[in-house]
Amino acid sequence: SPAGWEHWLLGFRGGGRLSPPLTSPGPPGSRAGCCPRGWLRFGDSCYWFSGKQKTWEESNLYCKAQNSHLVVINTQDEQLYIQQQTVPWYTWIGLSNRSGRWQWVDGSVYTMDWRAGQPDESDGHGLGGGEDCVYLHDDGLWNNAQCSRRYRWVCEEELKEHEMQPPLGQGGW
Fold it and tell me: DSSP string spanning 139-152?
């Protein structure tokens, strides 16, 4: 929570130890757990936002290599959170039509938050093939594009519950 991070920052400014909290509590009713270093927590998921650009497939493979997946947007709150982190950059999400029907990378059912007039199957881009992959446009709404375009991306992983262990070789806290 912001209050937890403010407490950590105040402790650091006051000469405290530079070590962020091990857990970042979510909203009431969410699971306890930790996100990997460099990932951000929202609800019961952890998110990693790229600063570079890759194709949809390269982005998907990158997330898989991190034991995660391209972001699957399940709620309006999650959509707004992702928008806050990504606008104004074009950013791949885990929705595609590569199998002939619109489907999330985790197989879950999708809801629509398309830009007006989308999805379309424009082939005027000169890249060959249809527009089978979905990204967040600079306004944060969904748009479909040719999968070989290079955009930023977001990886998501479900929050993992970790048992707190003493540091190795320390014999305890």
Answer: TS-EEEE-TTS-BE
Higher pLDDT, 8 or 89: 89
- Residue 153: closest CA among 33, 71, 78: 71
Rg of the chain taking only CA atoms, in angstroms: 19
**120-170: pLDDT as tens digits:** 555 444 444 578 999 999 999 989 999 999 999 999 999 876 544 444 554
Contact indicator for 162, 172 with CB cutoff of 8 Å: no
Query: Per this entry, what is the length of the chain?
Result: 173
Give the pLDDT confidence of 48-92 residue by residue, as tens digits: 999 999 999 999 999 999 999 999 999 999 999 999 999 999 999
Per-domain residue ranges for the chain?
A: 48-155
Residue owning tokens 């938050």: 113
Sign of CA dihedral 65, 52, 160, 109: negative
Closest C-alpha among 91, 105, 84 to residue 54:
91
| Residue 104 to residue 20: CA distance in whole angstroms | 33
Q: For the structural domain made of 48-155, what CATH number should be given?
A: 3.10.100.10
